[in-house]
Write a structure and sequence with these properties.
The protein has 13 helices and 13 strands. By secondary structure, the protein is of the alpha/beta class. It folds into three domains: 118 residues, Beta Barrel (OB fold (Dihydrolipoamide Acetyltransferase, E2P)); 156 residues, 3-Layer(aba) Sandwich (Rossmann fold); 44 residues, no CATH class. It has a five-stranded mixed beta barrel. Helix 9 links the parallel strand 9 and strand 10.
Length: 434
C-alpha cells in the first residue's frame, strides 16, 4: 500500500482532504482504488453456493469455506470460456481480482478463470455423516412415530422473525385450523444454531404439552441450512419422544433432519398444510353432515307440520261446534234443494195444467160450434159466390128454352126458336134469328 493510501486509512492525509467531508461515492471510489492496488489478482479456493445465472450471461455466486464467504461475479465473456460446469456445492479454485460494486458498497471477486478443486467439503461431510447415521439405523422407518392426524397443540422450533413462521401461521389461519400453536424461538443459522434447536426440542418434550413438534426454516444454500445437518441436532430429532416434522428449505433441499424426523414436509407451508389437512377434511365432512342434517330435519319438520295441520283439521271436524256448523250447512243445502225441487214441481204442474186447459178448450162444444159456424159461413160464402144470382150480378145472362132449361150450347138453338134471357134484374123474351 502506498503512503498516500496509508494516509487515507489512518487519517493523516493532506490537511485539506482531512478538513473536507467526502461524499459516499468518493469514499467508495477511494476504497476501491486502495483494494485494487493492495490486493493483486490471485487464486481463491472455496465452495460455490448461491449460484445465479442471469439472462445477460453473467454468473453470480459465492465462494465459501467454514469461516467466511466471498461474493463473486463471472462476466459473460469470461463465463463463455470456462470448461467447468458450475453448480452449488462444487469445490473450485477461482482466479480473479477484487473490486467494489459502488452502487451497494460491496466488495466482490471479479473471476476470470475457474478450475474444479474436487467435491465440496460440506457436501462430503454431509454424505459421510448421512452414511454413518444410516448405518446406525437412525433413519429406519421402524423408529418413526406416527403423526397425530389432529394435534391440539403444536410447537414450531424456528426463528420467530423469519418469513417461514409467518407463512406457517398464515396457512393455518387460512385453512381455519382450531389448534394451539406455540413458536419455540431458536437460531436456525450460524454457530450454535444446532445446539439451540436441540435444546429447544428437549425442553418442549419435557413440558409434555405438545402433540406434535415442527422444526424448520426457509430455503437457503447448503451453508445456510448446515445447522440442520449437524449430528447433535439430528440425534435430538431422532430421539425426541414427541412426533417431529422436519420442514427445512424448499422442495429440492434435503437435510439430515429430514431423514431423522418422523415426517418431512417440503417447506414450512407444506408442514402447515400437512398438520391441518385432516382437520380440514373433518371440517368439510362436518359441514356436509350438518347440511345433510338440516335437509333431513327440514323435511321431517315439514312433514310433521303437515301431519299436525291435518290432525288439527280433523279435530275441528270432530268438534261439536264443527258438527253443528256442518248440520247448519246440510240444513241450508237441503232447504235449497227442497225449494228448487218445489219450484221445479210447481212449474211442471203449471205446464201440465196449461196444456190440459188448452186441450180442454180445443175439445169444448162452444169451440166446436164456433169452428163449425165459421166453416158453415165459409161454405155459404162459397155457395153464394157460385149461385146463378151471383153470376148474373156479375153481368152474365142465362138463356132458357121454352121449358125453362138453360141452353148451354148454340147448336141446341133452332132458328126462330123462342128463348128467355134471364138477367139479374129480370127476364126478357127473345127469338133466335139464325
Amino acid at each position: 500500500m502506498s503512503d498516500r493510501q496509508a494516509d487515507l486509512f489512518d487519517g493523516s492525509g493532506d490537511e485539506n482532504d482531512g478538513a473536507r467531508a467526502l461524499s459516499v461515492s468518493e469514499f467508495t471510489r477511494r476504497v476501491k482504488d486502495a483494494l485494487a492496488a493492495a490486493i493483486r489478482p490471485c487464486w481463491v479456493r472455496g465452495e460455490i453456493s448461491n449460484l445465479r445465472a442471469q439472462a445477460s450471461g453473467h454468473v453470480y455466486f459465492s465462494l465459501k469455506d467454514a469461516g467466511a464467504q466471498l461474493s463473486a461475479v463471472l462476466f459473460r465473456a469470461d463465463a463463455a470460456r470456462q470448461q467447468v460446469r458450475l453448480r452449488d456445492g462444487l469445490q473450485v479454485v477461482a482466479f480473479g481480482q477484487v473490486s467494489v460494486y459502488e452502487a451497494r458498497g460491496q466488495y466482490q471477486l471479479v473471476v476470470r478463470a475457474v478450475i474444479e478443486d474436487g467435491v465440496g467439503r460440506l457436501q462430503r461431510e454431509f454424505e459421510a455423516l448421512k452414511r454413518r447415521l444410516a448405518d446406525e439405523g437412525l433413519f429406519d422407518a421402524e423408529r418413526k412415530k406416527p403423526i397425530p392426524p389432529m394435534p391440539a397443540t403444536v410447537g414450531f422450533v424456528t426463528s420467530p422473525t423469519g418469513a417461514a413462521v409467518q407463512d406457517f401461521i398464515r396457512i393455518l389461519l387460512r385453512r381455519g385450523w382450531r389448534g394451539r400453536l406455540v413458536v419455540l424461538p431458536a437460531k436456525v443459522q450460524g454457530e450454535g444454531a444446532a445446539g439451540e434447536m436441540a435444546a429447544m426440542l428437549r425442553a418442549a418434550e419435557a413440558l409434555g404439552i405438545f402433540d406434535l413438534l415442527v422444526i424448520g426454516r426457509g430455503g437457503g444454500s447448503l451453508e445456510d441450512l448446515w445447522a440442520f445437518n449437524e449430528e447433535p441436532l439430528v440425534r435430538a430429532v431422532a430421539s425426541c419422544g414427541v412426533p417431529v416434522i422436519s420442514a427445512v428449505g424448499h422442495e429440492i433441499d434435503f437435510t439430515l433432519c429430514d431423514f431423522a424426523a418422523d415426517a418431512r414436509a417440503e417447506t414450512p407451508s407444506g408442514a402447515a398444510e400437512l398438520i391441518s389437512s385432516h382437520f380440514l377434511a373433518c371440517a368439510e365432512r362436518s359441514a356436509q353432515a350438518a347440511a345433510a342434517m338440516e335437509d333431513v330435519l327440514g323435511t321431517r319438520l315439514t312433514r310433521a307440520r303437515e301431519r299436525l295441520d291435518g290432525a288439527r283439521a280433523h279435530l275441528r271436524l270432530l268438534s261439536p261446534t264443527a258438527r253443528v256448523e256442518q248440520g247448519f250447512l246440510r240444513l241450508d243445502d237441503l232447504a235449497n234443494r227442497l225449494g228448487a225441487a218445489s219450484a221445479r214441481a210447481t212449474m211442471l204442474k203449471r205446464e201440465r195444467l196449461t196444456a190440459a186447459a188448452a186441450a180442454l178448450e180445443r175439445r169444448s162444444p162452444e169451440t166446436r160450434v164456433q169452428i163449425a159456424s165459421h166453416q158453415l159461413l165459409a161454405l155459404w160464402k162459397r155457395l153464394q159466390a157460385a149461385s146463378p144470382a151471383s153470376v148474373l150480378n156479375r153481368g152474365f145472362v142465362i138463356v132458357r128454352d121454352e121449358a125453362g132449361r138453360p141452353v148451354q150450347r148454340r147448336a141446341a138453338v133452332a132458328p126462330g126458336q123462342a128463348l128467355a134471357a134471364e138477367f139479374a134484374d129480370g127476364t126478357v123474351r127473345v127469338r133466335s134469328e139464325g
